[in-house]
Amino acid sequence: MESDVDTKSIVVPKDFRSLLYNSRCSLNLIVSSTSNRTGEANIQDWITFIERLKKGNPQFIETLYTDFYNIVNDGKCVNAIRWLIENRDKIARYDEARTANALREMMNNALNKYSLSPPGPVRAKKAMHVVRLSYALSWYLDGLDFGKCIDESHITPLLLRIRADYSGLEFKKTIEDECIYAYKLYYKNPPSSKENQEELDSGFDCITEKLYKAQVLENS
Prior knowledge:
Elements: E1 7-11, H1 16-21, E2 26-32, E3 38-45, H2 46-54, H3 58-61, H4 75-86, H5 88-91, H6 96-116, H7 121-141, H8 146-149, H9 156-164, H10 172-188, H11 197-219
Parallel strand pairs: 1-3
Antiparallel strand pairs: 2-3
């Protein structure tokens, strides 16, 4: 799922004062890499990250399906991250209506950018993004686990053909048809399930309390 953000960093307040007075943050920074290229880093506190998950933001839900668990180097965070990983399929459907609507809006925006792009590699790249999102939305509405919704392996042959079409026009009808199919699914039976919210809220509260207690005690 394409994003302008190249990396995400989650911050846990290190002491009681920070927790009380300066624990909320959310900002994007432009950073340079060893290859002399620049990228965007999103930095936010733990509570903001949890809130984004509850709001059904696909780009933050997607984080739970990456290897970020493997790069956690703070023992206090391991159990909290493990719980998120174990419950990610439920979290991805914490508020189905919001997540589906967000995917639909992302697909709309991607389709508009594709339509306005001049022929060339950039247009082909935008076409691929539209297809990814149209399939992600359709599969999400069909009830597939979120990890499968963002798994490109099932549509790799189509994506490769689109990438090879630098005019960005050969697959125009295919792209539009995929979006129309996703639209029809969305409006025919818009999702509304919130069945796991109470269970997940309890879990979110529990892991956050344990994480913050451990962090504050270590730095008090």
